[in-house]
Amino acid sequence: MLDVSNLEEFQFDDNTTTGYNVLEAQREVRQYLRITKYELPKLKAFVKPFQPPSKTQILRFRATTYIGEPSHPAAPKVVMTVDVNSLPLTNPERHKFLLLVGPRYDPVKKQVKMSCEKFQDRSQNFKWLSDTMDKLINEAKKDPESVSDVPLDLRYAAKNLKPKLRFPKEWNRPAAKNTAITTTTTTPTTVAVVNSTAATAPTTTTSATA
């Protein structure tokens, strides 16, 4: 154990805590610069040409990676979207499917959006969403005619379905007509009157008495 009482007196010959923090930040920057120069070029061997998703790949997943925060609470979250028209369902089956998903259906974009963050591992959330979609599709194919008379409740999307009001063109202010205005300018005549006043100096009389 270090005995503080026996420490030598500080001679100001070492760096401060702030100085060590600056050096540590510089080391981290140089480490990433070395990776950029020597490690990133090796990734060219793994480059693959882009291939657009096929017709069978209808599920789109989105996840967020927070750089520098591997244990961020929102990092495992996965969001899945799917176009309703791309699902292998008939019209009655699609109607039942929309009844099952409820407010997760966006009637404007014609998409179903679901998210999952139940598990700490992101891959498990991917799997849960994929399995849930398979269960919904299988359930929608079971006797879809039994719920064909049940209407869709889209009140949750009333705000998005509400038409945008526009200002009527008939209410616009008419364009102003260019009218020539004739003005008569009268130049006033200024008469200067000079008054001369005579200033009379007072007379002072001094009398001497013998």
Q: How is this fold's topology laid out?
A:
Layout: H1 17-39, E1 59-63, E2 78-83, H2 91-101, E3 105-106, E4 111-116, H3 122-140, H4 158-161
Antiparallel strand pairs: 1-2, 2-4, 3-4
Helix pairs in contact: 2-3
Q: The CATH topology of the domain at 56-150, please?
A: Double Stranded RNA Binding Domain
- Sheet of most strands: 4 strands, antiparallel
Which series of helices and strands comes N to C? Answer: HEEHEEHH
Unreliable spans: 190-210
Tell me, briefly, the overall form. extended
Q: What CATH architecture of the domain at 56-150 would you give?
A: 2-Layer Sandwich
Radius of gyration: 44 Å
Distance between the termini: 122 Å
DSSP strand count: 4
Q: Report the CATH C-level class of the domain at 56-150.
A: Alpha Beta
Query: How helical, in percent, are the residues?
Result: 25-40%
What is the mean predicted local confidence, pLDDT?
A: 83
Q: Give the class from helix and strand content and strand pairing.
A: alpha+beta
How much of the residues is beta strand, in percent?
Answer: 5-15%
Strand order of the largest sheet: 1-2-4-3
Number of helices: 4
